[in-house]
Write a structure and sequence with these properties.
There is one protein chain. Helices cover 40% and strands 0% of the residues. Helix 4 crosses helix 5. The two termini are 23 Å apart. With 168 residues, the chain is mainly alpha-helical. The longest helix is centred in the last third of the chain and has 16 residues. It is built from 6 helices and no strands.
């Protein structure tokens, strides 16, 4: 949480470059509470409104997670009230986070030791509650919107090339 987002991205790029010596703990794969991996960090950054020079604080990790959600058209449309496609929203989220089950199979969209850490029912419940919360007018005394807690933060990693976390 003391590094900048750019520093995290630099360490992710270092790890993903096979020609770099993978010695010590310099490289980073899945970063932060939402386990953002090298392949999804650029989208998280783009859709969050943050810059590489911003600190990778807990608050900014929440913004990056919201950015990832907003990068999924079906999830963004559903949560903003422009669509009733809850299944499409859940399907999109399941492709972003392995702990969210694909509603078609009730399992993680990713194998290799990954498993869904939640049920499809839990996913639908959080999506519905978040959609309701987002449609309510905010008063100036209400706290800033946080991302739905559909993925339990865990210090885990996933196989290279996947947009997942590995649930233990």
């Amino acid at each position: 949480t003391g590094m900048t987002i750019g520093e995290i991205m630099k360490r992710q790029a270092y790890l993903m470059n096979g020609s770099n010596p993978q010695v010590g703990d310099y490289g980073i794969f899945a970063a932060g509470a939402y386990q953002i991996i090298p392949g999804t960090m650029p989208s998280a950054l783009k859709f969050s409104g943050l810059k590489e020079s911003d600190v990778f604080s807990k608050e900014n990790q929440d913004k990056l997670a919201i950015g990832l959600i907003n990068s999924i058209p079906a999830a963004k449309s559903y949560l903003e009230g422009n669509s009733d496609d809850e299944i499409g929203a859940a399907r999109g989220l399941s492709k972003m986070w392995a702990s969210i089950p694909n509603p078609d199979t009730n399992r993680s969209a990713y194998g290799n030791g990954n498993k869904a850490g939640h049920t499809t029912g839990e996913t639908f419940s959080v999506l519905s509650d978040t959609k309701k919360d987002m449609s309510m007018p905010k008063s100036s005394s209400q706290p800033e919107q946080k991302p739905p807690n559909v993925q339990a933060p865990q210090p885990a990693s996933a196989p290279a090339g996947t947009s997942t976390v590995k649930d233990e």
